[in-house]
Amino acid sequence: MDDARFDAVIRRLGQSVTRRGMVGVLAGVTGLGLSEVAGKRRHHEKKRKRQQSKKRRVGVEITDGALDGEGHPYVGLMSAQLADGTHLWRCSGTLISPTLFLTAGHCTESPAVRAEIWFDADVENNQVALNYPFTGQTGGTPYTHPNYNPDAFYLYDLGVVVLDTPINLPTYGALPGLNQLDDLAKKRGKKDVTFTSVGYGLQKAFPDAAAWKEEANRVRMVATPRLVQINSAYTGDFSVLLSNNANTGGTCFGDSGGPNFVEDSNVIGGVTSYGNNDTCAGTGGVYRVDRADDLDWLDTLP
Q1: What pTM was estimated for this model as a whole?
Q2: Could you read off the pLDDT of 175-199 as tens digits, one per residue?
Q3: Which residues pair with 17 in a beta bridge?
């Protein structure tokens, strides 16, 4: 198992999914975790996995954004690993306390049993010194939402890493209030509602024939996408759709699990979850963390 498993596209064409009594039609959904060898292996993996299953996922990174620098030092790069230290895939995430790193469920799912994490803004140019992707600045045990189902990952796409040793910072990412994002639906039509997306994913994504042009530097990037859909037939009550274009920026492969802060705050409205195509264009899906089942589960963790 390696990162290339995230370079397969999830297809649930024409199929409805239900959660909490609401229906979301998710057609052509792609998950946003990233293989380290995506550029070379994407075409082979897609062809092979199309023959195996119609359900697929991939990972993502910030596109058309800017370098974050030290703007969000509590956002980190995660390497999911087997028990023997074998690197599986990379994702992004947020420290919400000294011992709790919030990310996506498809980043912490089996066979991952260990996660190593780096908080440097530029891991790409310091891989040897930082021992990436093997030993991070901290690490811990991954856990996935109790209702998570890998065959419909977007319904409960939440995971955490409980750190072995605490990371003490002056500021952390903050969880939203119960159903806080519902208020954003009332703002639409009056003014644009924006989020601040942060992650270590791809900066540029292209179709298979032009995959050599992709930019996949492991650096922390930031973008400010606009809210496109919330509480709709497509998103259900468990996700939101954000813009992904040259004007606003957006998320792509490797950004999975990264935070989408409400406007310019440190409040995490949701974690980067899925995309609608393998070029990270149009819109990006964010799993909401303001629902009762998510907040209640997080409250049980140390």
Answers
A1: 0.80
A2: 999 999 999 887 755 457 999 999 9
A3: 24
